[in-house]
Amino acid sequence: MRPQPPYEVRKTWRNHLGNQSVDPLRIYSPRSIEEVSEIVRLAESHGVTTRAVGSGHSWSDVALTEGFLMRTHHLSRAPAPEPDFFAPAWSSRTLVRVEAGIRIKELNAHLDRHGLGLSQMGGYDHQTVAGVISTSTHGSGTEYGPLNDYAHSLDMVVSGGTVVRVERAGGPTDRAAYEAHHGDRRTLIQDDDVYDAVNVGMGCMGVVCTALIEVEAKYHMREVREMHPWAKVKADLLDGSVLDDNEHYELVFSPYARKHEYPCLVTTRNRVSDPRNRPWDKRMRNWLVELFAKLPITPHLLNLVLHIRPSLAPFLIETAMKALVKDRYDEVSYKVFNIGNANLVPAYSSEIGVPMDGRHIKAVERVFEVAAQRRQLGDVYQSSPIALRFVRQSPAMLSMMHGRDTMMMELIQLRGNEGGYEMLGAYEEALYELGGRPHWGQVNTLTGSHGLVASMYPRYEEWQAVHRRMNASGVFDSPFSKRSGIAMDRFTP
Ligand SMILES: Cc1cc2nc3c(=O)[nH]c(=O)nc-3n(C[C@H](O)[C@H](O)[C@H](O)COP(=O)(O)OP(=O)(O)OC[C@H]3O[C@@H](n4cnc5c(N)ncnc54)[C@H](O)[C@@H]3O)c2cc1C
To answer: What is the reported pTM?
Structure first.
């Protein structure tokens, strides 16, 4: 008999902010795909659930499980030990298979050492590869889909402890070579529908152990940040050329008008040649702002000020945006994508995707109304700038970007802001009326009632058909999947 993987008991797991926690029955830290398979089988044999977690950078409950929680920090090798067996048609593409518990930060370092870089990333790098794939984490730029779109092949452990490799039809793996190597111990599934369902699986489809990611040669970017009034930004967005002319375009805005204008900080990022001989001040962001954001005292100060004088929120938001203005910042791409120490400020957010068919403009103006109403009725304030990012549609069935180019609106609140969660709930309801879909990894109030998730995603039933296959025993169900109505049917007589 094989030795059982070691585990811990009576331990609490918390996400990075500490707003989500759970006391699972056991915490495992598997070191191989075989150990993952063993843990799934054990969970099934005891009739309890299991789920992998990444680095806990989801503000929602999406990573929680009450059964056997699997930490994935030991599954973080680059390159992954699993062989690829490339089909000839794929041999000219730049593909890297990594273990899925690696963080984006270490992946970037690995790629950099090999003269490579990610084509796109979000604004932070502490999340794991499996984490970003599972929740459809995204950056900005209408030529670029969410990060899951750059993965072409996933090694996964599904219900029954079965090890599968999932790809689209005609995917990168040569079937004959794969089967000759693995025999009937593993299964290669090359099927568009299965791939588009398991890619963005929120941990409900099984445990992702490796991902094959398409990358490109290392490159550099220039970031420019400018203040503009919403009236100009709105005109630019309606015209659309700012999105076509810039590789990456995004903005943050204040929902409070000052002198009849809603201030916006617009960021563009475009490729440049290697900036090594540029002056130093063009190769860094504003160091004073970076330092301020990093100081442990900063969030306490901001929360204290907002507690004593909440009406200062509009001023603080605008001041924070103005401090970030910069005529140019040139660096290697992954440093420019990372928005910097703002990520370290203790905060949480909801993020809602709305289609870029005119409803995206209405969405911003609805948020102005919600913020004004909360201020007028309850003296409640938005405590941070609100971000808009623009993402190409994704084929993944439960990506927030599925089937439509999407504007993602990130509604950020400082951790100590009174009424912050309630305000996020009000924004969320308002944006659902405009076709909004919530980011799986960010705060949301989705429930299983009113067929809500099915009404948001046109291929939901097809996703569920694959889910019934991959999660046949219900072993990957969780508090999140039960509250959102995604979990396997329960209590059937
Ligand atoms: C500071 C900060 C910045 C952020 N910036 C962005 C951004 O720019 N863009 C954006 O879109 N989002 C952003 N997010 C949200 C974040 O990217 C997502 O919530 C992401 O899923 C977190 O990844 P993680 O590795 O921490 O995974 P976790 O939060 O630990 O898990 C997320 C989900 O992935 C599943 N999962 C994890 N590992 C596996 C595995 N091996 N197999 C199967 N399922 C697995 C979990 O079960 C869970 O459902 C940000 C969050 C923070 C805290």
So the answer is: 0.97
In this structure, the number of other CB atoms found within 10 A of the CB of residue 92 comes to 8
Q: Could you count the other beta carbons within 10 Å of the beta carbon of residue 283?
A: 15
- Give tens-digit pLDDT for 220-249: 999 999 999 999 999 999 999 999 999 999
One-letter amino acid of 374: R
The length of the chain in residues reads 493
Strand order in the sheet with 162-167: 95-99, 207-214, 151-158, 162-167, 186-190
Question: Measured in Å, how far apart are the chain's first and last C-alpha atoms?
Answer: 37
| β-bridge pairing 186-190 and 162-167 | parallel
Distances (CA, A) of 155 to 136, 168, 200, 324: 18, 13, 14, 41
Placement of tokens 């002319």 in the chain:
245
Task: Give 215 Cα–ligand 1 centroid separation in angstroms.
Answer: 20
CB of 148 shorter than 6 A to ligand 1: no
Distance 270 CA to ligand 1 centre (A): 26
State how far the Cα of 247 lies from the Cα of 227, in Å rounded to an integer: 19
Mutate to test the pocket of ligand 1, among 16, 49, 132, 345 (most ligand atoms within 8 A of CB): 132
Q: Atom of ligand 1 at shortest distance to CA of 103? A: 25
The residue type at 98:
V
